[in-house]
Amino acid sequence: MDRTSSGLTEGATVWRNWAGNQSCRPRVTAAPATRADGAQEVARAAEAGQVVRVVGAGHSFTDAVVTDGALLSLRHCNRVLGIDHETHRIRVEAGITLRELNQVLADHGLAFPNLGDIEAQSIAGATATGTHGTGARLPNLSAFLHSVELVTVDGTVREVNAEQDPDIWRAVRVGVGALGVVTAVTIQAVPAFTLEAVDRLMPVEEMLTDMDELLAANDHFQLFALPHSPMAMTSTRNRTELVPRPLSRTRVWIEDELLQNHALRTVCEIGRFIPRANAPFQRLGSRLAGASYRVDRSDRIFTTPLRVRFVEMEYAIPREHTAEAVRAVRELARRPEFGVSFPIEVRWVAPDDAYLSPAGGRETCYIALHQYHKLDWRPYFRAAEAIFDSLEGRPHWGKQHFQTAETLRPRYPEWDRFAAVRRRLDPEGRFANAYVRRVLGEGEAS
After folding, report:
1. Which of 56, 78, 331, 399 sits CB 3.0–4.6 Å from 96 for a disulfide?
2. What is the four-CA torsion angle of 333, 335, 340, 344, rounded to 10 degrees?
């Protein structure tokens, strides 16, 4: 559909996510040109008795978007609506991507306090699923929202913030698209800052022993552990007054394209046909890897272009279980039948108060597992999930897991408060596809 189109289209083509592991053929699709058009499409679909799901950039690995009802894309609703330089707040439409938003923020001397390593997601999709970066003193991206514009099932548009309705506010920030359609958000940004980034190898056991000191000493700290090597790549990111020194185009190509993408894809392809090659490749890689040093604008340090397709599982566990979890998952990933080529990614975040935030109410360690998209990820992820289940794990809402509402409810102290908000806003379950019903329950009014 072009920029001016707003009506529902019958006989939609197949939709697929970025990883290629999810697809659907919606009965109707819409890509409204304005937020008002989007509200009309929500009401129209609901009147027709169709489930309404919204697609952002398609970077979730679950079937959160999959529907045979109405699929609403907000890709045209990506405008900047206003910037308040005094409060450092920026209001944008929900379809804007993090990449687009990072550039706008930088142009106005602002930045996100923290970011993940992927910037392809829409702002609404990233916050609705609890997307995060790393930093033991910083929460996930949804905690940086100041308000949201929410379209409810009858097309009513309401502004939601902490003062007007605290219950809806704590539910909608990580709402998994189950409460309505977020069409705009106001973000609490911070003045732009520069990061000094140091990547270096460290023995995994040394890192686990010194973890508390490392987290306290650095604004941002993360770990990439190779299952078959005793070494891990650690990344520290700290604020600095140094002048940014962007990498040359040649250096960017070598680090981001040649090493990050081409080399990884080659290793994955070889490992797919010769699984026993993964162990020597990883040991060789850990011996050859050197230290890396960069000073640049914060979003350029936080984010990395990754074009090798994969499927991902990520779990949030209490921080005190970090060492036990990392050791158990590394041992699991060494099993030859899984053919794991990717490193294990470990990050830490501060608590927040969103009802369904995986980091809600506790200091959290996130552990992410990746499997090359041409391999069967299910056996590896099922085995890993058993480890996370034993450690009070909560899955990332946009990444693969096998949980249900029955297994998840005991893990969220305020689950019932979210369910009550859901019954208020969507009593007939018009925003509930199969994924939502599976992980959140049926949701109809009782």
Report:
1. 78
2. 10
Q: Is 355 helix (H, G, I), strand (E, B) or coil?
A: coil
Tokens 């809600």, residue located: 360
Phi, psi of 129 (to 5 degrees): -105, 0
Domain 194-395: assigned CATH number = 3.40.462.10
User: Where do the domains of the chain lie?
Assistant: 9-73, 80-191, 194-395
Assign domain 80-191 to its CATH architecture: 2-Layer Sandwich (3.30)
- The answer to whether 72 and 41 are in contact (CB under 8 A) is yes
CB 150 within 8 A of CB 182: yes
Across the 446 residues of the chain, what is the mean pLDDT of every consecutive 10-residue run?
A: 41 84 94 96 93 94 95 96 98 98 98 96 97 98 98 96 96 98 98 97 96 98 94 96 87 73 83 86 72 94 90 98 98 95 96 98 98 96 98 98 98 98 96 97 60
Contact status, residue 66 vs residue 433, Cβ threshold 8 Å:
yes
By three-state DSSP, how is residue 84 classified?
strand
Q: What is the dihedral of CA 62, 342, 141, 41, to 10 degrees?
A: -30
Place of tokens 């899955």: 395
Q: Which fold has domain 9-73?
A: 3.30.43
